[in-house]
Amino acid sequence: MATAVADRTWRESSPETIEADLAALWIDLARQAPVVRALMANLVIFRERPAGERIDLSAPIDDVPVDEVSRLHPSRVIVLHHARGAPEALSPIAAAIGALTFGPPQARYGVEQIAVRSTCAEASLPSIVRRLTLGDLPTSLWWAEDLSQAVPVAALVAMARQLVYDSRRWHDVREGVLALAPLLAGKHGPDLVDLNWRRLTPMRQAILHAVASERPAADTGLAGGRIRHRPGDEALAWLLAGWLSSRLESTSDIRAPVLVDEAPGGNDILTVSFAEASITATMNEHRVIVNCQDAAPFVVTAPRETEADAVASELRNLTHDVCLRDTILALSRRFSSG
After folding, report:
1. 3-state per-residue secondary structure call for 88-143
2. 111-145: string of b/e by CB count within 10 Å (b at 16+)?
3. pTM score, two decimals?
4. HSE-up of 286 (CA within 13 Å, CB side)?
5. 73 DSSP 8-state letter
6. Quick one: three-class SS letters along 219-287?
7. Which of 26, 57, 94, 107 has the greatest count of CB atoms below 10 A from its CB?
8. In this predicted structure, what is the pLDDT of residue 225?
9. Is the pLDDT confidence value at 97 over 50?
């Protein structure tokens, strides 16, 4: 499969003629060379932008790998550039449509993208998105903003099977967690996908293995933990703390909460230690190394993947991550209690 966009074709459109303009674009592309229209899902990408900002709807988004995700998981991509604060229920004010083609000439496939600019009341957003999504495909919402400052629109989230976000963007971990908690209150909340949570997988695996090796009742060894993180990785540290807290709550262990603080300098992303279990685990970009008092050290490799790889993998899986949900709810209880 190709590793780069072979061709990127964009045209101005209008909110009323998006579908007709897309159909005409595909016809023109097929006249140039055979191309297969590839569609596996709807992917709605939310971008919050000030009302007065000039936006080139056809330009790639600098800090969001939309094109690469489209290559890895072909979807109808709908990029919503929205300005909040307007009281009126209005239609989008501008639109553009495009197609990306990949692969060699004899095996070319393409994906379509729609970009719209809106300055309307949030109550109008579901109807805007509903007109553009394909009803027989699953829909995921990629919140490409810091949701600790730009709170997700509940009505949009309710339309999606998944809510994809990256807590590495958060400037305020507490506000980010409290913004997510109401979305999980009902029985039909979205499947949360935190790209930062994926980075924590080798650390969680290492801790569970170490504690289980130390004692039969594994979770009881997680009490009294202390987490230190490098600058910029506070959200990752709190995700680990929330996961540990959720494990302890499941065993009715109400001993001292997990402590979190920053460790300036050094290359280690996270270090967690458990006094009761005499275990220390340290994570960097490549591996987690675990030292136990009564056992030999061991290493868990940290897989390397790009942001696009991570997003595409989650879009393919469509699974409900119970551990992440329990982690967010545990953190919500902790932050709500002061």
Report:
1. CCCCCCEEEEEEEEECCHHHCEEEEEEEEEECCCHHHHHHHHHHHCCCCCCEEEEE
2. bbbbbbbbbbebebbeebbeebbeeeebbbbbbbb
3. 0.90
4. 1
5. S
6. HHHHCCEEEEECCCCHHHHHHHHHHHHHHHHHCCCCCCCCEEEECCCCCCCEEEEECCCCEEEEECCCE
7. 57
8. 84
9. yes
